Amino acid sequence: DTGVSQDPRHKITKRGQNVTFRCDPISEHNRLYWYRQTLGQGPEFLTYFQNEAQLEKSRLLSDRFSAERPKGSFSTLEIQRTEQGDSAMYLCASSSRTETYNEQFFGPGTRLTVL
Amino acid sequence: GNSVTQMEGPVTLSEEAFLTINCTYTATGYPSLFWYVQYPGEGLQLLLKATKADDKGSNKGFEATYRKETTSFHLEKGSVQVSDSAVYFCALSDRNTDKLIFGTGTRLQVFP
User: Fold this and answer.
1) What confidence score (pLDDT) does residue A81 get?
2) Which one-letter DSSP state was computed for residue A99?
3) Taking Cα atoms as reference points, which of B100, B12, B111, B93 lies closest to residue B21?
4) Å from A88 to nearest chain B CA?
5) How far apart are CA B45 and CA A91, in angstroms?
6) What is the rounded CA–CA span in Å between residue B66 and residue B54?
7) Which is nearest to B76 in space by CA: B93, B88, B94?
8) Number of CB pairs, chain A paired with chain B, less than 8 A apart
9) B100-102 and A5-7: which strand pairing?
10) Is the pLDDT of residue A100 over 60?
11) Residue whose C-alpha is closest to residue A29's, from A1, A60, A67
12) Which long-range contacts (CB under 8 A, 24 or more apart) does B74-77 make?
């Protein structure tokens, strides 16, 4: 088991461009979460999937953000028309809901810088 | 709504000193409580957890007790090491969705 992986690890883009991040969860984990962490703050929940179904989206997730998990395995997070305020670390986590408690395993994150 | 408040840092200690990082929460129902740690250049790792009132979570010499009456989950360690230098996050999880709600983090710096 290689843990949760995210790609790319760093992304620098210009304002107005679209970016897409990928998350590969631990195999057979049926829940997948996206969080955003800005400097000096704790991670903030964005959205989560159970298998391929997106069950909740935070109000932080404007209509420029879209996430998918088409086959219940990897997930993508797309940001359209990026703004400087989107600069942050985007974290992915996965868990198995079959456990009595939900330990989420986090990936290393994708650091986005919008110029 | 649910929220977590933890003491601001940085917390600066000498090696072998006693550590307390305060954490209080506001939640409906009975959330699970967690401490996560983020070492420099690394991702978030679960340090310890408690799933019900009066549970004590422990790991690597760190402890925290789920106190429902004071809505607290303070992190303690009797003797810190330089290698404990990191950012510590208190978090709770929603029982229905399991999404995590984090505090702002407390940076611990331990000097020899």
Assistant:
1) 97
2) S
3) B12
4) 14
5) 12
6) 5
7) B88
8) 55
9) unpaired
10) no
11) A1
12) B74/B20, B74/B21, B74/B22, B74/B23, B75/B19, B75/B20, B75/B21, B75/B23, B75/B35, B75/B47, B76/B18, B76/B19, B76/B20, B76/B21, B77/B18, B77/B19
Name the amino acid, one letter, at A65.
F
The C-alpha atoms of residue A96 and residue A105 are separated, in whole angstroms, by 10
Say which amino acid occupies A95.
S
In sequence order, what are the residues at sequence separation of 6 or more whose Cβ sits closer than 8 angstroms to the Cβ of residue A62? none
Residue B22, min C-alpha distance to chain A (Å): 15
Residue B21 distance to chain A (closest CA, Å):
15
One pLDDT digit (tens) per residue for chain B, 112 residues:
889 999 888 999 999 999 999 999 999 888 999 999 999 888 899 999 998 899 999 999 999 999 999 999 999 999 999 999 999 999 999 777 788 999 999 999 999 9
Q: b vs e for A40-65, b when ≥16 Cβ sit within 10 Å of the residue's Cβ?
A: eebbbbbbbbbeeeeebbbeebeeeb
Helix (H) or strand (E) holding B96: none
Instruction: Name the closest residue on chain A to residue B99, using Cα atoms.
Output: A45
CB contact under 8 A, A101 and B100: no
Residue type, A101: Y
Task: Kindly report, residue by residue over A17-64, the tens digit of the pLDDT.
Answer: 999 999 999 998 999 999 999 988 999 999 999 999 999 999 888 899
- Name chain A contacts of B49, Cβ cutoff 8 Å: 101, 103
